[in-house]
Amino acid sequence: MAEHTPFFLGFSGCYTKPSSHQAKVSHPRLMNSLLCIEYCRGNDLPYAAVSNDECLCVDTKPTGSQSSSACSLGCPYNPMQHCGGTNVANVYLIGFYYHRAPSCVALASQGVLLEGYYWISETEGAASRKVQCNPTAPCHTPLIHTYSSTVTITHSNSTDNNCTAENIYLYGPSGCYFANEDTEPWVQVSFDQLYIITGVVTQGSNDPDNQQWVENYALEYSENGVNWTQYENGTQLTGNSNFNAVVLNTLTYPILARYVRVYPSKSTCENNCSLRLELNGCKYSSFDHSLQYVGCVIETTDPNGQVMVHSASTSCQLPSDCIDLCRAAGFLYAGLQGANCSCANEVRTYGYAASSHCDITCTGDSKQRCGGENRYSVWRTWEVRCPEVPSVGNATASSTSRNHNSQVTYSCLPGYVWPNGTIEAEKTITCTFNNWTAPPPGCEAIHCTSALPTAANTTLSVVGGDEVGAVATYTCLQHYRFPGGSTTKTVSCLTTGQWSAASVSACEMILCPAISSSLINAVVNSTERQVGSAVEYQCTNNTGFGDGGTKRVRLCLDSGQWDRAEEDCGKVFGRHFETDGHFGFFEKGCHIQFLISHSDKDIV
């Protein structure tokens, strides 16, 4: 396809922009005439009409012929191509474009970067097939093109005013030139936020008369623009071998960066160090970490051009097993076709099929699908977040976040402390890309090292040793109790490392109330009052108790109380008695006392 002029086979002319269409796609930065032609071809429509940033696919040739000068607006992605103008469109008869790109990657290198269905032909003369190209899941958005309004370009050659985001992108009007005296040239792409970078694309400068390009370059990246990391320790990436071809380097592992620097190898520059540049990737803030499934990837039957380049297993039962195998082997993607697990670093080559074409049931899970005929179900193995927050013995974590730069602080559980020498900084870990910094040592149990207090007349049992929460129980011996009446007391090991009580009082013998020292007409055979003591009361002076008896026995019970009340003895007159100057009368064993004096003559 010619760049400057629209007059080539298949170009139908400049027409009024169609008012209706059968298919449409638009993009303010990525639209170009080739994309529109291929997109409409993929929709099996005969005409493509491109107007500024819109592509309209129609089934009949538009009307309202316009002069070619009205359709000379440069395309947003490739200004050397024409994309119509205001309310006018360049129209192409697609049937004249018989050439088919060999792969989705080849289409992308020519500027066909929007998601859609496209026709490809793997080899010259081979049957064409329609496949899905450029799905968003693998994180391959052209970032400089897409976010040019927020991208800043700086460089070592401060005299080149053309080295801007508007000029440096692929198929841009010029490129970035470096002065001959610049011994260590570099160009820096600065974003407004953190991005996942999955690939670097380069092209020589747009100057056919003075062809310039960079054959090799190195990469550095940074989050803050101050601390820089060399990509793969300064490994040289392969650049261009002519001024116009586009060369993609898919990174062996994605990187996280706000700032990316490209360092051309000056000794490999053709004529002079000049380049156009794109970075592929996606925003970290909107990346779906949980979505590992990439799609139903089409595999070629050509053994020399297969997408899946490494066989990891022929007996893999689950996608998770295949992902682990390919990750361990250093690949970015894992694919299953039945039980065959294979790996790759680039899976976009021949596009994607509808998920229904991957219809083989996974061996280890009938609910999952593992590929189809010449199809692989593919998952990404790479992560841009950390594994699960590591557990630390006897400690809790402040967060479960696994995102880059997340910090997690550990706190010991009650009853545990950090080992001696653990500094405060060690208690917090940070997620750096996809790995945690070293976790702290596990917390150690607090011990009550002092001896337990002793208590007389008790038995002691301890549950939990001497760790925090341990309980020591003091139990009084039989017929003993603590002051206050209880028979048990407990002491606990506190988080301070001390027992909850420094002393425990002794258990005292349980005693019934003392025998009265002023008994009337009665004597006792003992003053013992321990539990189980039996004290006999004997009436004297021809006296008796209220029931006529002359003896009583009181027992001291376990409760510390006597089994009956204490009684005095009085004189017995038949059924009447006298005691302490009063008369009484017994009725059926009940003592009824009449409160009259001894000198009274009558009993009322």
UniProtKB/TrEMBL annotation:
One Pfam family from the record: WSC
Entry's Gene Ontology molecular function annotations: signaling receptor activity
Region forming the signal peptide: none
KW Disulfide bond (keyword) present: yes
Chain ranges of the Sushi domain: 384-445, 446-509
Entry GO terms, CC: endomembrane system; extracellular region; plasma membrane
Coiled-coil regions, chain positions: none
InterPro entries (UniProt xref): FA58C (IPR000421), Galactose-bd-like_sf (IPR008979), Neuropilin_MCO_CoagFactor (IPR050633), Sushi/SCR/CCP_sf (IPR035976), Sushi_SCR_CCP_dom (IPR000436), WSC_carb-bd (IPR002889)
Domain WSC span(s) in chain numbering: 8-95, 290-382
Keyword field contains Membrane: yes
Keywords annotated in UniProt: Cell adhesion, Disulfide bond, Membrane, Secreted, Sushi
Record localization: Endomembrane system; Secreted
Domain F5/8 type C positions: 139-282
Membrane topology type: Peripheral membrane protein
CDD domains: CCP, FA58C
GO biological process, one term: cell adhesion
PANTHER family: F5/8 TYPE C DOMAIN-CONTAINING PROTEIN, F5_8 TYPE C DOMAIN-CONTAINING PROTEIN
Protein's name in the database: C4b-binding protein alpha chain-like
Upper classification of the organism: Eukaryota, Metazoa, Spiralia, Lophotrochozoa, Brachiopoda
